[in-house]
Structures are given as structure tokens and as C-alpha cells.
Design brief:
CATH architecture of the largest domain: 2-Layer Sandwich
Distance between the termini: 45 Å
CATH topology of the largest domain: Nucleotidyltransferase, domain 5
Shape: globular
CATH superfamily of the largest domain: Ribonuclease H-like superfamily/Ribonuclease H
Number of domains: 2
Number of strands: 5
CATH class of the largest domain: Alpha Beta
Radius of gyration: 18 Å
Structural class: alpha/beta
Helix content: 25-40%
Strand content: 5-15%
Oligomer: single chain
Order of helices and strands: HEEHEHHEEHHH
Strand order of the largest sheet: 3-2-1-4-5
Length: 216
């Protein structure tokens, strides 16, 4: 893995890491991030995004720092301007079977594989590299420091939110449209009252305690 020079934590999203990689000979750089590691319900979704060299989208940063309205505005702009976008999903069943970290890495690998062409360098949010034979760099708080990763974070978050919205119509009692599966008080109360449903992660604390009250 290449040891690219790091910014101090807290720097804003730029194309610094992408430009540095290209100066070192890499032709295409993909930023990778996920959404949905922490919720009690729903899949984990990852995105891989390859941006053009002259990309500029003022205000784009870590999706967690943006409002839903801002994410929905940036989403089509990123899709339109990006050279390639790949989306990968790991299901609730996969999360329970192989654990959330491994499921997240699986979703990220799927996102890379679904790009229209493979990059030769990856910028990955977090500290865990992917088991791929591609040059890569992990970045702590990468979604606030790299525009490619920030773009991937928005794509992953919007896609996951839309998945949870679709399920909310079938399971309105759980309030998925409001909390997207995260462990809010409203969500925990619904699990206690109705029991877990097929979207709940059965191995997660806050769910497994109520398995005897499962909703089909």
C-alpha cells in the first residue's frame, strides 16, 4: 500500500490526494465510502466514485455534515459529473453471517467491481484496506478530506436512504422513513412493541434481545 502524505485531521475536502496519486503515476483514482454501518436495520451500502480532474462542487463534504436536502441536491450533480460511479450493497443476512466490518468491505468491493472501468488507485474512508490487488490508501475521516470520498459518501447515503424509504411503505410501524434504521428512541420502542422484522440485524444489540417476538 502506498504511503501517501497525509493532511492533518480536520482539513476540508479537496482533490489533494487524487492529484498526489496522479503525480505518482496513477491514471484513475476512485474514492470509496459506505453508509449504514451503525443502524439496527437495513443493508450497508458502499459507493466508489471516480471524479474528473477539474471537478468542482462547492459545499460538498462528508454526507453526515450535510442535510438531507443538500445530499439530494448533490446526488444528481455527482452522478452527472463523475467519470464513473459504482454502488455495492451487503444485505442484512450477510451482515449477520460475516459481521458488519466484513459486510462493509464486501459492499465496497462490489462498488469497485461495478464501476464502468477499474481504477488503478483507491482512496478508502477509514483504516481498513480492501482485499483487492489495486493500489490503495486508507484515510481516517477521509470523507472530510477527499472530494472523491465525500462524493462516494453522498452517493452511498442517498441510495441507502431510498432503500429504507421503500421499506417504510411496507412496514410503517417501524418508522424507517424517519430514522433509516438507526437506533433512535422511536425505533427501539417499535422493536420492543412489534419485535424485529426481516430488515433487522439479528446479531446487533438492541435487536437480538427481542428475537422471540419476530415479525415475518
Amino acid at each position: 500500500m502506498d504511503n501517501l502524505e497525509l493532511f492533518e485531521e480536520g482539513d476540508v475536502s479537496t482533490l489533494y490526494f487524487e492529484e498526489l496519486a496522479k503525480r505518482r503515476g496513477f491514471e484513475s483514482v476512485a474514492g470509496i465510502d459506505e453508509a449504514g454501518r451503525g443502524p439496527l436495520a437495513g443493508p450497508v451500502v458502499a459507493a466508489a466514485v471516480i471524479l474528473p480532474e477539474e471537478f468542482e462542487l462547492p459545499g460538498l463534504t462528508d454526507s453526515k455534515k450535510l442535510t438531507e436536502k443538500q445530499r439530494d441536491k448533490f446526488y444528481p450533480q455527482i452522478r452527472q459529473q463523475a467519470k464513473a460511479v459504482g454502488i455495492g450493497v451487503a444485505s442484512v443476512g450477510e451482515i449477520d453471517k460475516i459481521n458488519i466490518l466484513q459486510a462493509t468491505l464486501l459492499a465496497m468491493q462490489r462498488a469497485v467491481s461495478r464501476l464502468s472501468y477499474l481504477p488503478d488507485h483507491l482512496l478508502i474512508d477509514g483504516i481498513t484496506p480492501l482485499p483487492l490487488k489495486i493500489s490503495q490508501q486508507t484515510l481516517k475521516k477521509g470523507d472530510s478530506r477527499s472530494l472523491s470520498i465525500a462524493a462516494a459518501s453522498v452517493i452511498a447515503k442517498v441510495v441507502r436512504d431510498r432503500i429504507m424509504y421503500s421499506h417504510s411503505r411496507q412496514l410503517p410501524e417501524y418508522g424507517f422513513a424517519k430514522h433509516k434504521g438507526y437506533g433512535t428512541r422511536l425505533h427501539r420502542q417499535a422493536i420492543a412493541e412489534f419485535g424485529p422484522c426481516y430488515l433487522h440485524r439479528k446479531t446487533f444489540s438492541g435487536v437480538k434481545e427481542y428475537l422471540e417476538k419476530t415479525v415475518d
